[in-house]
Fold each of these.
Amino acid sequence: MRALVLILLLVPTGADAAEIWSFGECRSELARERTEFRRQLRNAQPDDPMFVPFPFPRNEHEAVADLIAFHRKAFADLPDNQLAPGNRRFFATLDEGRARFEVARVANWTPSRCGRRSASDFFYLVRVFDTSTGEEISRGAVDNWGLTMALAHVAGEAGGFRALPRLTVARGASVTSPQFVHTVGQELHCEILWPCIAYREGANAFIVRDGETYRLALERPLLSFRQELGNPQARRQLLDRFTGTPETFVTLGGDRVAVAEPVAPH
Amino acid sequence: MTFRALLLVSLLSFPGCNLGGNPDFRLGVPYHSQPPASFYCGPASVQMWADYDYDPPFVPTQEEIAQWMGGVNCGSSEEGIRQAVNRFTATSDAVWDFDGDINFAPFMSRQITSIDNYFPVIAILDGGLHAGVVNGGKWHALASEGYQWDYVYFHDPLERADVYYTSAIWIERNCPVGSTCSQIISHAATLGAATNLNRYGSDIYDSSGCHVTGCGPKTWNEPPVED
């Protein structure tokens, strides 16, 4: 039995105070299911599998508590000697009071923003550090309903986690609303635990990944995830259309997909 | 390969014999990342599967796989990945398994059954925009009906090995609403899937207690089956 001996040292990254923004919107067809799930999640008791200590977490502390509770429940039936090294280290760091957390909000621009049950506009990216070494040992994601999405551990391999980009974007004083963003596209791929940066500049919006900047061509017709990526034949036609061009495309959340144009760094 | 083939034959005599009894399971597929800023998630996934089947002298490079596929300048096609699996791994019956998004229950049943039979699966995510290898996870049967992924270990060639996805987000990424569910899978390794689905119930549950017909904790009052 792994007792919860946890000293919560939590460091918001500064991204949490800002409004999360996106260009996606959810269709109403699953609204009833989401409303019902919201009710059930709020009323769930501790023995229900959907139970989380803080449904719809209001802050980073509650999101961290939800992540830990889910992970402990998922591995509750495994003795310590059967845990994978990364999990064992994660639990030991928590139980021995050596965990420090950094939490950032990440805008969800993928189709899962409008999922079957929940509408996850954003999620909390939780980075777990071992204070005895300073190393980031785990990285997890908890959505704005309090449900754990993903988790990864460093299990002794060299290099550890790829660092997160800094939210300060060097494009001048006119840059506004920088935020982390999770989106998928052709080549331009910003994973749950390795998000990119999105920001606005005047009427334009940009995404930065690994130092490369793309402008979202929102003045052009948006593409439809369902119609143009929803079946393999249509998707192949779309991919062929972009082959050999500098342009690509990214999801905006729900059904919306935008063309993205690379821009030269300032 | 011989061992795995024999194991599969024996397992198929008792399809799903491991289902319900696995606390936390990883196939042990060796991880390979794709080159940065490349479209090589398909070749990287095939390489991982090949490395699971063969020792290094017989494991192809991603470049070899990509060239055999005719180049992947705009991303791999599912059909290209399927053919490459049959060419470069010990599996010769890989199929491109796709289904409508509302049919995620039998689709996930085939995925779990393949893992249960010790065969990797190449998951096609986000409506075909990304691919990687399912390396295992945890599932359990419910006493009343259904069996479920609790979570999945996903070898993401873009990022790292064994990224742990909860079943809810895994279903969303495998079977986006309005799109298709898609994976490359050994046909023989899925033969127990229908039996498993019938044996354990008609639905795959995710860890939030939701299934095809809706969400709710009522079916979770039963304890998991302990084999």
Amino acid sequence: MRSIMLGNEAVARGAYEAGVRVVSSYPGTPSTEITESTARYSGIHTEWAPNEKVALEVAIGASVAGGRSMSAMKHVGLNVAADPLFTLAYTGVGAGLVVVVADDPGMHSSQNEQDSRRYAVAARVPMLEPADSAECRSFVLRAFELSERFDTPVLVRLTTRVAHSRTAVETGERLEAPLRAFVHDPAKYVMMPSNAKARRVVLESRIAELARYCEDEAESAGLHRWIRKGTRLGVVTSGIGFSYAEEALPDASILKLGMVWPVPVGLVRRFAATVDRLVVVEELDPVLETELRAAGIELEGKGLLPRIGEYSAATLRRALGDDDRKPAAFAPGSLPEAPVRPPVLCAGCPHKGVFLALARVKAVVCGDIGCYTLGALPPMKAMDTCVCMGASIGMAHGMDMAAGREFAARTIAVIGDSTFLHSGMTGLLNTVYNGGASTVLILDNSITGMTGHQQNPSTGKDIHGNAAPAVDLEALCRALGVRRVRVVDPNDTFATERALREEMAVPEPSVLIARSPCALLPDACRDDVLYRVEPSACTKCRACLKAICPAMSGGYDGPVVIDPEMCNGCGLCARFCKFDAIRKEDATS
Amino acid sequence: MTSSLLSCNILLAGVGGQGTLVAGRILGEVALTLGLDAKVSEVHGMSQRGGSVVTYVRMSPSVGPPLIDEGEVDYLLAFEQLEGLRWAPSLVQGGTLVVNALMIRPLTVSIGAATYPEGIPDLLERAAAGRAKVIALDGSALAAANGSPKSLNVVMIGVFAARSGLPKEAFVSAIDRVFPEKLRAMNQSAFAAGFEKGRTA
């Protein structure tokens, strides 16, 4: 059947058709919909793990027990899962195991720009890279075959434009991949030095076999494509780079690599011999370029094309083709500049008040990854650092240890519920164990918010929305050794501010849990209530604009206005109005 | 269609939460119904949170990359005035710009750090100087009159359907496929209102 699918949905479709039994992942843009989609197929056990390391370990267990398994994550998630990945390369698999990693060139929704092909090289794991949704499906099917044939995990790399584009896919039926028998084989699966030394040798000989496959078979297997056109220019590329080359350089011959590691050096050498000029088109790092240069192949790459950010057809046209653009409708300079529209904390976000409180107590804020990172933006500017998942707590402790007790009284770690469970709780354990005195503020919005509402171990629901045990965050923090654990309602900005001042002042570790569900959750959405400004009472003092709410505007020439469509009824703005101009209304009347 | 009947680049520009993703899905379904190749590129995650969002839709017998390069947009469907202004430079000469009258002030404007240009539809009309068709409409009001302000995306698709000359039935069936039963009648009515607006513009 032909349908139009998101790249991520097509990855899930491929996994379904490959007979996958277990999928375990942690959400992260642009990979999240892969796992949300496998959850919709019957016959696949899908779960959200608390972090990517656990997710991959679950997949490894499933594979060793004989079931095909998969784990999907964003590029920085693979950093977390790198520990099991590197040794998984030694053990190999039971049944097929595929790790899908989605890179984010251009950093649409990420803290860095990482090229996951480096992991294939470093861990010595083969990697496939699809260019569109149809290939997402077919390459995942191929990846499972390769995984079992060569007894290796296989990495499949996506980039944002592949993961988040909808393109046509021809789907097939699910293969029956029967459960393989579990084999007790400690020499293969127990990686202590004596066994690992033997597996190290296996790993190298496997890579040699994979390199031969990549040279001799991958083209006929539908992974590589050699498009013979002109001889003046040849392009070696992979993934989304292929579509840019195809569009921008219609006369060029193209060698599109579907298997990007090991690099098929012999194939590229043969291709190079057919063209006058060879250019490597690869977003981010010069991975192909480096290997091909080392093999003595003459080419151009990063000297010609950027190393930073996403490419487009225009990038290649500017560097290589005729940049003869069609005339634009609007002459340059004929229109005024549009003011920027940065992302903001949502209207009605109950945790917005926390940042206003943080700004008032003049805290040094170690932030973390999630919606609340937006608290770093003006006008709140209530965040001093943000590095990676869970970093806030360790960093706050480090600040305290370096800068002393007085500084410690001003530092605070701010982290969301899902991020705390991902990798924040080990940081808190460290703070307690090493005699720290940090204050940790957990913003508990009862969901994994930024990635689009995924369940986590604190929400009381599993990936399907079925009831699941909910971890008790207060009890957990106490069990880690924190004696001062308090819960506050972040909607009450002033109470939150008082609690912050008290906890930051005490010379021992403390946890403040600001608990209020995400305003976009169906149960939290206040459809019944909205707030309206009474124009005659508004003095245009703009105190209410401190609520930094996207639903509010005005207050300069005319009174403040609240857009009824956008108002979620939180009432934060009304708390700032000294003139009772902001009034609660029944939205249902 | 402007460039050729079988090849078309559409840019949907709006503010996170306005329904551009669903509009993109509908257009993808339309292309598939017509036997065309289609690619729809979306933005998820952080930039969705009340920020500027764009969805690229390309349809042709064989589509290259999912992104549309600047100056290659045949139809710009702006769900909000300021986003229409922001993306106008991407429109090709002879293209069509549909701009919804809705104004959503970005935070930079609300806090007084920037000003929201006045009368954007007129500015666009004047600056286009006949090199593009500019259609200004109060799509949000049309959507509200036909059931829900949330159907703005389908109103905008209705305008596009009328201007593109593509078979109307392909849109009607795509809307039925994308929406669940209880939302179909409302969205068909919003589509019809947009189509009428596009036909007479």
Amino acid sequence: MTFELTLAGLITLAAVITGVACLAMAVAVVGVKVQRSLSERATERRLAPLRPLVIRVASGEDTEDGEALRGLGAATGRSRRDLHDLVVQVLGKVRGEPAEQLVELLRDQGALSDAARRAHSPLVARRVRGLHLIGCCRDVDGLDVAIHALDDRSRRVRSQAVHTVGQVGDPRAARPLLHALRRDGVHLGDAAEALVGMGYGISDALLWALEEGHPRARTVAAHLCGIGGVRSAAPVLVTLLESHDDPIVAAAAATALGKIGRPQDVGALAAATLHFFPFQVRHAAIEALGDLGVEAAVPVLTRHLSDPRSRIAEAAATSLITIGPRGRRAVVEHELVPAAGTALALARLKGVLV
Amino acid sequence: MLETTFAVTAPLVLAYFVLINTSYLVLVVVSAVEFRGHMERKDTRRQQTAGELTPGVSVIVPAFNEEALIVSSVRALLALRYAQHEVVVVDDGSTDGTLQVLTDAFDLVPVPTHHPGEIPVGALVGDVLVPRNGRTRLVVVTKTNSGRSEAVNVGVNTARESLVAIIDADSILEPDALVRVTQAFIDDPGRVVAAGGTVRAINGSTVQAGRIVRLRMPHSWLARAQVVEYLRSFLIGRTGWASMGTLLLISGAFGVYRRDVVIEAGGLDPTSIGEDFELCLRVHKTLRDQGRDYRVVFVPEPVCWTEVPSTRAVLRRQRIRWHRGLWETLWAYRGMLFRRRYGRVGWVGLPYYWLFELFAPLIEAAGLVLVPLGIAFGVVNVQYAVVLLLVSYGYAIFVTLAAMCAEEWAFHRYERWRDLAAGVGGAVFENLGYRQMTVLWRLEGWWASLRGKEQVWGVMTRAGFEEGAA
């Protein structure tokens, strides 16, 4: 019997294959759900006897001789791995002695040393999980591993490393973190949050970043100097504002100066409101003049009430009201200017002006 | 002659079906790779919050006759988990009680304001109202009726934050939707200019105070087909395109743009039917003409839920409008095709849209007409014709099921088995019955545009989801 390869034959074969493939894919959809359901149920079965013990420890209600903790220590095999995952979830919500006890449990069961080893794994997912555990446990011993991971070749690992160093909270990681901002994959917001978590010991690192760092590091550093009250950064911020090489950095510098600037910085901020500066720098400088609250800024801001860019005019009006009585008088005197009229109306609604 | 026509056309139609579905399959694979990262991050995921360096967002809500839903919608938007956002509702000359219910619910008072008009607007802009307490970050602007595009433009003019999120009044955003979509803007403030989010169908689900409390597949097969269609085109398709740097369409139901970029591009075109597509293309064109380095990104997690048409009449009007908008926009930007300056947009994205979005209903209609004709005139073997159709639509069903598999693996939003079964059934119905219906309507839209017929928007009758008891 010979097989004749005709177009019709090919199409029939293709139809059969397509039908089988559709059936297989439908089975795959079901299979994915089945696999997940079975896995979740199995995990729940393993965790059922352990969960109440974890809750007892986490809520600080364990007996004096640590009965619940001993019960958790007896977990083995797959149950132990599930227990570690559960503890990691709980650690995000627990502080103080209960958190320390749970971290010690993980340490005694080798989870933290495993995590440090996994952070060197060739697989990205394993490195991420290892770093994640170090961060959740705020394990200072794992900090060096996390700092090293800030320069990992994988974006996901670098991103996790940022969270981890923030959770550990040791200022030693501040400068490496700011240095890591030169690469993709490190979110500015995440980096800023991580640095906030390290406390006031990061001032030197912030000053370093302002002077020598990548523009992204400078943006984060400027922002944090402002909210952290690093007043010694003011002269450097003025330099960044005046150089306006990078409008994003300059705008961040202006905003920070609004919080920590000195009276003599009004001049630099006022200059940055001029028309040839990029819009975001002008806007940030005008808002900063309001935040700074120095009455010497009133004439500058008053001139901007009639700026052709409505956002600039509105920001100027709002800043004048923020400055104080002299600023408010200026706004009232210019009430017929649209931006001033709007700002006055809103201020009256808020009860700032009677 | 008919035999020759069929002999030439049928293989072309088959080849087209194979090509288009293979392209979808490629997008499924590309998206699955992106989702793998999501899966691997699942165990290490933090609760995302709006932290440091969060840019402000103005959520712009154009509203026309939304009396029934607008208050709960605005309350939900004000309650979004975000550090710095305002809600700007633009009442597009509603003839019902939209403005009155807002005024009563939020104690609105007028404030004197000027209308900066950074984007020129033809309509007459009326009052600007804010809550009397002066602190709730809500602004309601009234204007004469002139369409959604101008309403959005008025909203952009009024917005005070650096990012604008353009949504529909009936869109339901997840509480941390703004947090997720703004991450890219925080990370890359110099380059990211726009971000789209997945839009999914909410029909059949229960909503309480503007939040989904119970997610279910819809009861009607029409809506079920749209659920899987949105899954394939939004979640899978756009994730895939965005990862290749060629995202050309950010949905009008939920999109976030840098305000200055929208203004620079001139805002939404009030004369365009496909205004969301048109704006995105115009942004691409404007920035590429300037030689600027920029990115348009996509957030794959479900962030926006909307009600899809549940009747044929409303669906028909929607698809006529969509395809007409597609044609008019592609034609308007035909100058971008195959030009080096426009990079992948001009060489990959736009040609794809021409070939596989615009011409798809034409090619499919040719197949649907030729095969029965061929059978009727005896030039086509019935068995052959059936097999041909099965291969064409079977492959499409396979691709849709693959998209469902990817979604089930990564997100599994529908928990019940019956919802999964409904989805699988929807995948079959979407390709056998539903899409043939839409072929006709899409051609109708295209033909109406070619004839210069005036577009009538019509009214969407809301019926899709249940408001749960508080």
Amino acid sequence: MISASLYITACTTRNRIRVRLRRLREPRYLIGAIVGIGYLYFSIFAGRRGRSRGGRGRDSRAPIELGSAWQAIGSSLAGLLVFVLALLAWVLPARPGLLEFSRAETVFLFPASVSRRQLLVHRLVRSQVSSLVTSILMALLLAPSGGFERLRFAMAMWALFVTIRVYFAAVALTRAQFTSPRPLVRLAAWLPAGFLMAGSVVVGAAIVRQLTMQPVASPADVLVRLTGATATGLPSIVLWPFSAILRPQLATSATSFMQAMAGSLAVLAAVIAWMLANQSAFDLAVGEAGERSSDANARTPVVRVRQVGPALALSGRVEWAILWKNAMQTFRAVNLPMKRLAGPAIGLTIGLTGAAVGMSAGQNRGPAGFIAALGFAVTAISVVAGPLIMRLDLRSDFDHLDVLKTWPVRPADLIRGEMAWPAAFVSAIAWAGIACAALFSGAAMPDVPFVDRWSVAISALLVAPALIAAQYTVQNALALFFPAWVALGAQRARGIDAMGQRLIMLAAILLVLAIFAVPGGIAGAIVWLVLRNVMGVAVFVPAAVLFAAVVLTEVLVATELLGPAYERLDFTSVERGE
Amino acid sequence: MSIVVEHFGRTYGTFTAVDDLSFEVSAGEIVGLIGPNGAGKTTTLRSLGGILLPTRGRIRVDGFDLAIDPIAAKRRLAFMPDEPHLFEYLTVEEHLRLVARLYGVEDFDRRAAALLDELELKGRERSLPAELSRGMRQKVVIACGLVRKASVLLFDEPLTGLDPLGIRRMRETIVARGQAGAAILVSSHLLHLVEEICTRVIIMDRGRKVADGTVAELASRADLAEAGSSLEQIFLHVTGNK
């Protein structure tokens, strides 16, 4: 079976390369390829030249400096992070790529006389090309120096990627046996979960002990204590496999690399053995999904919650209908009814407010600063990266363009409706971050007056949705004008030419977004200039109101202007995935 | 006339999928659109449905030009594609509700209940597309098309994936809609079905219309005299596969 897997992998890779080379005859791919190659050249070789100019001594010191930083932070702390992510894989299960069989694989391999174990090995073999390519690219871009160290880095990354892939598949297979009618199978399935739970108790107790010994002075103090809690004793043993897979990346010598790699490969072998030991759950975990994985309508994971939100009213604006559709998609995808959000949200708000008041009274600046910074980071990431990540707008609905185009609706209404839900969702996350930062800012920055802090927070509350809506407008506008450069639905074009296309799109997005923000920025600046002496820091609020009003008006006008582009958009011009 | 197609043409790059196609379908008529693979049937239907833009020519639905007044035209037509493309996370009932909202259906509850019964979808209202067979998904697409009072119905291979009972029901559904006054265009490779339910037939080959008329009219055409009297014989003759 391995020879068959290798044959499929080799043929697919060869033909994929041929297709990608052939498509360079189209200008859009050729331009993308030139930009992509240029980007890689300047990232890899120009960076190397820059380091060389800095002197060979500095170049050769780089990994040692990183190694020292690694020692300082503590590999156990990184292990703790991986441990938390590994726990999340059980709580928030994702669809493991290793268990996703293509339609062709289902048709040809499932009825073939091969065992489920061999099918798992087949997927593992097939996933090697992408793991290797990604590892080599990361080594070229990120490795601190060239030659053998780059090779070492690539090998380390490869082991990490394969371990992650196999771990997710093993979790999915194990979870599928949780409800097995056979008690022994059920017990065997719960064992790894039980070990992880016990491990989390051990690590959690050590962390709590460290953090409560005396008040935390600063965010850095939190990191030091976390390191202290996880670097020795039982917690370090629990975290060993999780830190072992990260050690090879930053090994400082060939000897330490070999030792670290041995540990990493041992973990990989154990995870592969665990996955293969659970092959009996193959049909439960992938049987049906594999059968239907190539069909967009059948790629939906098991939806346990039916009634996730209110029924759609039979009359009203088109925008609301599209917003409702996209909201249903989000809540069903995570199996979470809307009404179940209210309780935790209220509880969290009360809890955070109480904690903020408590910290303020206790002058506990360290943790308060940490939480406020976290809130700020959440807000910044939401505003900057949210619209890139949450693509539940026209970009993802291009997959349904043949349905959307038959609807008798104004294109501008449709575009606004498509943008409304993801914009509201990302704005809500940004607002939560702002509220968190504002609540804890009192304890973190007691010297800054209340009015000043809350003026800035309210301004951010006003500006964030406007910026998010503007980004969605720009993203959807580019999708409408350059549909061939937008990935269809959840699929993404791959290859250096596709990477170049994405870079060009990113530059265009930033440029258009900057142009979008200029009128609102000017209006806000005028308000600020006129009223700053009268209102002080509170002037940010009216300036933000004006900025948001101008940007949202631009969004409204832009979506109207995008109507004809939608009308002209041709179903056949949208990129098909590979 | 409910559907008027005038000198319609559509190209993909340098390839001409449909060339200078003209025909009309009046209310109450059921017209079969047949042709070999690659004849341009789906391109024609998708252009009529507003999904593809014509490269040349005009398409009017109930008097509304699809290029000039697309909203009014689309409000009057229902396109049921061969590939059941549904929203992954909406239930059957929610699909119908969404369509009803977008098309302004007034007596939704009554119409939806009758349709679910007619298309044997009763009891599957809360199912997601992933939980339905291909045939069932095809029925949902058809239910979405029929839940509104469309005066023009476009069916692209409506029987694909249906079981024998489903095929019979679908046949009856199409005929009933035709008798109720809808203008219907059906594309299918099942020539016996087309011969049975259609009042007229349009045969396409390599992007062009090669025959248009009732089966009897086509059979009596001088150049088709030696072809035979069945639609299959006529089809094979005019498409050069005698």
